[in-house]
Amino acid sequence: MGPTPHNCRHGDHRDVGHRAGDNLARALPTTMGFWDGNCSMSYDLAFWFEEARPTLEHAADVYDRITDGETGVVQPAAQLDAFYEAVITTFGDLTTLEDADSVPWSDPVERTPESVITTISFARWKAVVPDLLALAEKHGVIAFDPQRESVHHW
Question: Among the four 13, 14, 17, 115, which has the fewest Cβ within 10 Å?
Answer without folding.
Answer: 17
